[in-house]
Amino acid sequence: MNLLQKLRHQNWALTIGVLLVGFMILIAWIGPALAPQDPMKENFALSMDGAIRTPPYPAFRVPGYPLGTDRWGRDLWSRILWGVRPTMIMVTAVAGFRLVVGIILGLLIGWAEGRRARRLDSIISSLLSIPVLIVALLGIYSIGVDKGLWAFIFGLGFTGWAETARMVSEQTRLVKRQTFVEAARALGAGERLILFNHILRQIMSLVWVLLAFEISSTLLVAAELGFLDIYIGGGVWIEVFDFQVVNVEGLPELGQMLSSALVKISDPSAMLVIGSFIFMGVLGFNLLGEGLRIEMTQKEFGRRAGLLPQQINEWLDAHVYIPLRHWLERNGRKVVVVAFLIILLTGGLIYYQRNQYRFTEIETVLQTPGNHLWATELHDSYGTSYVPFSLETQPELIWQAQIPGGASGGLVVYTDGTVVIAGKENILMAFSPQGDVLWQTPLDATPIGTPALDAQGRVYVSDIEGHVTAFDSHGNKLWNVEASATRQATSGPIVSSSGMIYLTLIDAVAAISPDGVLIWRKTAADVYVDSPPRLSADESLVYLKDVALDAATGQIQEIHILPEAQTLFTEPAFFTGADGRDYYRNGHAVMHWQKNESGLQIDPALTWEAASFVLFNPLYQGRLPNKLTWLYYTSEYSDGRMVWLDEQSRLVGNFEFPPTNSRIMAMGEKGEAYLCAPTGRRIQCVMALPGVDEPVWDVSIDDGSRSIGGALVPGTLYVSAADGGLYALSTTGAQP
Hints:
By secondary structure, this protein is of the alpha+beta class. Helices cover 33% and strands 25% of the residues.
């Protein structure tokens, strides 16, 4: 046979199908390792044709983005390389479920006789008449889209097995009339033995054909569901405006990518790219199934093409199926018990991976100088706001104190529970845990922000004239130093473990020694900043927004986490997590970074689909010891929103706090957030847990001003008000 005849008789369906399916499997296996970009990284300003453009970016126009980007500027090629794996896992699991159910029911239906057979055939015909997409929609929503893979197995498999069952039942009816079946019955074989030992073996040659077609049809329906905003990882809907909600997205998956691909009808490029890969998968599995079918049926020239599969089946019969059947007959009960334990263990592992943050060992927590309960505005000089305890039951207001002129900021709490707070009428006051005034001392100028405590118990207060004043633990003045003659302080101070004091002066940072000497002052920002600086985990750097300064000299450090073009309008910021590591937030993305011998090491970003959900960048951010990353969105014009992300960028919690101008008081050991906000003539305070839509508790304070600070200590939440006083909310009625 010459080359032309060989090419003519080549099973091209099988060849092309194997190549396409092999390509999809290869991407699913090693795709994430080949991704050139972070699939979750958003880019809202990239250079294209010599100008800064906004996304989406077309294919082959931006270096490093060969297939272009989606509407949030995320690299499509990288997202596809990441997205094929979860899609293939899902469709293979669903197809396997449908195949197993279809084969078992098909055998039983095909073996049935008379009226029962006709009734079962009618049921199959009825199920086949219902569109799989409609049944999938109803099934997935009945379980809940947020349940992930199990919801899709149920929805897509509820009636998806019917086509396989019809084909298997027809083959069963043909085989059961064969002479060898009658011979087995004449020799005394029971129906179950005949059905599973003889008929099933004859049908097993169809399994690979049916599996290929099942995967193809499942992938097509999954794409249809994705186009309707139903995909694995979705199901969490967030209200952006009144009567307008959007679906949350996590790590890439082809159905999810298809749901958000079409931005406008005139530019379907992203949808065409993603749709092409889905089409490749559907076509590949269809061709594979058809090629296998051809191999097992009569080909041209009267030759049976099923020679190789038949040889494989004979080998499997002799070495696998028959020995396995005899072994199962002897050890059936043990197999059932072991299978049950495996299923139980697998379910436990899946649950553990999906809820890993609940079982994670707590890492080293950064310590505050002197181990004070609350040492500065954000609890510690690192700005973590984290405390290793919780206020689980609803507290009650047990005492309140009026602060002359209202509080200038938050409060600090000594290890013995003594509370220190500054008032706008130039006064510094100390209260006992029971609310009694211990001492009060005048200030030279109007205080700014929250005081700070050092390891020796000294209190530091910054003021509107750019000075810092030190007091001992009894309110006696120790010294006063001018941090700036031209800039006023815009934040309270923070204190390092060595006693160095740092504060913000509009756009600059000043460093003062423990004995009151100005060490350095450095302009660090080009905007007005009213938040205190933060220290890096090793206290070698001082952070002010996206600028890092050397803590000893004040020199600005050249730490380029991202290109400048990618940080436009994202309000980036360095911060230190409560897990003792350094982080960088760019827009809604958070990444861990560190310097080592090889240079700057930056981990992949954790982020969520926030572009359509919130109007602003987060005002607060942090990292908890249990590996949850949190972002808090709030402003004077929008409600508050607390978001928790796990290590895989999965949205662990999304809590909406309706009042505007809200503020985080603290973060607790279970990842919970303590939030307060003005609501008319009251201040509303709530505790929000990750994954819980409603507050665990909700308390209101009769104060018409806004909350500007707070502190969480064991058993008590303190809240300070701008034009009001200091409030102690306790769960026991007794103070620490």
